[in-house]
UniProtKB/TrEMBL annotation:
InterPro entries: AstE_AspA_cat. It comes from the Bacteria. Keywords: Hydrolase, Metal-binding, Zinc. Residues 39-192 form the Succinylglutamate desuccinylase/Aspartoacylase catalytic domain. Its cofactor is Zn(2+). Pfam families: AstE_AspA_cat. It comes from Nitrospina watsonii. This is Succinylglutamate desuccinylase/Aspartoacylase catalytic domain-containing protein. Transmembrane segments: none annotated.
Length: 336
């Protein structure tokens, strides 16, 4: 798999629908777009082909700035990831790895492509890194950081008052770039939500116009900061459904499960049912240890919480749940 590099913006890129992007670009592409200030702002989008908001916001911003005499306020490196999956509105193609799980080494062509991008970023230096995503379930817009650095916190808070600190999975783009420059992942809600598009458009515009990243401090008791402590996965070969009425899959979850995202859930909250007593939900903590029995208890066929948690990224799409995860479990976090 080749990394395609461009030092200009093809005019058709600004008007092409995301599902037709592979008619313009041959594959993963890094565009070097000059601006008035250096070093460049690195912006990544379409790591998942079914998350178009980042690309659509960049079309608007580039149209706005490249059509003016002054051009971009700051140079941009724009990485457009899985353009082939975008054609089918898919997270990734069947034969591909997840493009946001390739940034910590590996022997596939996609891993080597990611390593090349990181090497170029390290050798050239960056102002900051923004990785733009949508969520498959209902979530408020929020930021996620992988390093408790004041500059990363500043960027996260610039996008949303809700900030999540996580270290796993450790194969995401933002974690690799956090070793090079201030880096943040922004989750813009579900694809097609105009509010998410407006929010990320305004955020990237702000970042382009920052002269410097100067953290202004933050409250240590900020109640909108969370620490991701567990990722909910499934045992191999199981089936998953949503809405208990009549569902007989191995695991069936309450209707509108994603409405629980970023809600304080008390101990003993019922989240679903299981129809195969031999299977249990898997929870992977930050050390990579399986800790499902610390979070879930099974009462008859009911699945209930064993402790109070705040979930995020809970999905109601079986394909997303089985391909990636059901969601994450968080707790409040006090910034030092």
């Amino acid at each position: 798999m080749d990394l395609h590099r461009l030092d200009h913006v093809p005019p058709e890129l600004l008007t092409t629908p995301v599902e037709e992007l592979d008619n313009v670009l041959p594959g993963p592409t890094l565009l070097h777009i000059p601006g008035r200030a250096e070093p460049p702002l690195f912006i990544s989008t379409l790591l998942h082909g079914d998350e178009p908001t980042g690309f659509q916001s960049m079309q608007r911003l580039l149209t706005q700035y490249l059509g003016s005499p002054e051009g971009l306020p700051r140079s941009v490196w724009l990485f457009l990831g899985n353009v082939h999956a975008a054609k089918g509105n898919l997270r990734h193609l069947d034969q591909q790895p997840d493009f946001n799980r390739i940034w910590n080494g590996g022997d596939r062509p996609e891993h080597r492509l990611a390593a090349r991008v990181v090497t170029m970023a390290r050798e050239n230096g960056l102002f900051a890194c923004i990785d733009i995503h949508n969520t498959s379930g209902k979530n408020p817009p929020y930021s996620a950081i992988n390093k408790l650095d004041p500059a990363c916190v500043f960027l996260g808070k610039l996008f949303s008052d809700k900030l999540v600190y996580f270290t796993r999975p450790d194969t995401v783009l933002s974690k690799a770039f956090a070793e090079i420059c201030p880096a943040v992942t922004v989750e813009c809600g579900q694809a097609g939500d105009p509010k998410g598009l407006e929010r990320v458009h305004g955020f990237v515009d702000q970042c382009l116009n920052l002269a410097a990243i100067v953290p202004t401090g933050y409250r240590t008791a900020d109640e909108s900061v969370y620490h991701s402590i567990g990722r909910i996965e499934f045992p191999d070969g199981c089936t998953v459904g949503f809405d208990h009425s009549g569902g007989q899959e191995d695991f069936v979850f309450v209707e509108n499960l994603d409405s629980l995202n970023f809600q304080e859930l008390p101990e003993n909250t019922r989240i679903g049912w299981r129809h195969d007593a031999g299977k249990r939900l898997v929870v992977i903590d930050e050390t990579g240890k399986e800790v499902g029995d610390e979070f879930f208890v099974y009462k008859g066929d009911e699945i209930r919480l064993k402790r109070a948690v705040v979930p995020s990224m809970l999905t109601t799409r079986p394909d997303a749940a089985l391909d990636d995860c059901l969601g994450y479990l968080m707790q409040r976090y006090v910034l030092e």
